[in-house]
Automatic annotation (TrEMBL):
UniProt keyword Magnesium present: yes
Name the UniProt record assigns to this protein: NAD(+) diphosphatase
Record's GO cellular component terms: cytosol
Start-end of Basic and acidic residues biased regions: 1-11
Keywords: Hydrolase, Magnesium, Metal-binding, NAD
Amino acid sequence: MHDRSRPDRLNPGRPNPGRPNAYAGIPLDRAALRRKDMDWLKDAWTSPQACLLPVAKSRNFVTGDTDSARAVSVPAGGDWGVEPVFLGLLDGVPQFTVDLTGLEAPEEHPALAGLGRFEDLRTVGPLMEATEAGLCAYARGITWWNARHRFCGVCGSAAAGAEGGHVRVCTNPDCATHHFPRTDPAVIMLVHDGAGRMVLGRNSRFPPGMHSVLAGFVEPGESLEDSVKREVMEEVGLEVTDIRYHSSQPWPFPSSLMLGFSARAVSLDIRTDQEELEEARWFDRAFLRTFTPSEDFRLARPDSIARRLIDEWIAEGE
């Protein structure tokens, strides 16, 4: 990450019980207490060691082939035409991002020309080194929030960035509301029957053949466990019990936090809500261990907590 033109790429690995989910667990000091210190932020921005991870149209700046992509960081400092956002300190080195969406050809910016291209993290993230992927996800999420909260949601006045890009403050002195980055909690749950079968469903928005576990957003005034029960009942008509938390994953596509669970079905007759899913059915471990991925059937993407839940459930029966 510190070599501006050829950042190091460590060996990526699929999530397993001994490591965090993709995009999580990066060794970054977010240095939140520094965000209010404008003098410190200015010094950090102009530091010769400071790194900048550009974003444009919710795409991250990378180099290399799609199957070996690496994040490109360039020197921070200077005038980029937009306010930088402070991400934190990586090994003591300040990390920033800027949103270059306003430029017609951001990859042709003089500081970026010839160094890389902007790619959707959902395409390149699964094969990137873990820290690079996590920083790119963070940069994508915080710039997306800033871009969509340029005006106060209370009075409609312009909202100005503050605290290193982690707060937006209404410029109307009679309002002066402080707005903070939004994260939408979503439960994602592997539903099993306790006897070697699990439910997989297919949403019409999925890539061809992709099947995954069930998921849905938490509603106001609802506990996570209640959300799991409600979403499973709404999507496939199953009553569940024995709800167990697994792990969480930041999912800035655009602004979710995925909260992973498993749950055992009490009823077994699936009734699919066609507005939620194209189809859903039971699959047994034997099939999931031996099938060949195709346009007709494949599992969730490898960087998702959904895939980790599936893979670990399959391994439990070995």
